[in-house]
# Entry
Amino acid sequence: MKHIIKTLSAAAFLLLSVSLSAQKTSDPQGSIAYCLPSTVINLEVEALREDFYAGPYAKYAEKYLGIKVRQKDETTYQLLQINMTPYVEADHSERYALSVEKGKIDASFLKLSSAGLVSFSDAVAGGETQWRFPARTSGDFSDKGLSSNLTSEATVLFKNDRKESEYNKVSVQQNMIVAKSPEKKAAETAEMILDLRKQRLQIVTGDTDATYSGEAMAAAIDELTRLEKEYLTLFTGYTETQTQKMNFEVIPDAARESQRYIAFRLSDTAGLVPADNLSGKPIVLELVPQEIAPVEAPAAESKKSPAVLAYYRIPAVCSVKLIEGVDVLLQTRIPIYQLGVKASMPVNVILK
# Structure
């Protein structure tokens, strides 16, 4: 019996796409076809969206409360988490066939196939549907505030008073119900906030006619604090947050001179967007392959034409950086098959 197949490197044959002649393909009859492996870098990205709604009394906050607050509604995004996962899949641009018409390949060879009878790849398929944020809304302060929207203002009217041969204008004061101005409502709200703070201080220091102790004191202080915070949002505004999750994939190309890829973009208005959406700032994936040393030439007597040649890939170990501007967000090392080298080995055939 001729030599059977030697043990092959599991890393080199991590993915062999084997197609049987029984399948309806254009592969030669009596052969086993396979693909060389390639690496796909998957990025699972999570971003935080913050919607800030400025308070309706924001421009009066410094005047009545002595604090500076944000004056305009604003939406911002920031990256929360990035998970990088390398996946291996079949490179269908690198397919080879092993002819076994005169015999059969030992079963140990087929065991090294990571997907069995592969006319498909090891790539992860499917996944959750990517979602976008709902349409932006405006801030809602309708349930906050305690003062009435109406007030009484004194106005002076004039009427004509007839005296014998002439008319004289006589002033008449009359109260009218009108809507309060925003500044007046802001002043009243600020007064309530200061009054709540005063009541809380009186309870803490005991400067009050009522007696509070134990849980009653804590409950009273908590309620006053809650009311203060609620009314304070009319000046300071409030923020709502949501998270956005998306997956992006980068397939390194050995033919490219520069191994820098725009993995995805972060937009000020849409958050996480694909690399081809120019509305966002780019997040760059940089690959630096480690050099692979050349092998020594085999001795002259061993240079014999083998019965069958099997091709495989030795991956290049790459330093990987994910960069936003000048900031490095993530740095690691992963093997990438298509940036490595292609090699071959003799495959002996068992003949009957």
In short: Confidence is low (pLDDT under 50) at residues 1-24, 110-135.
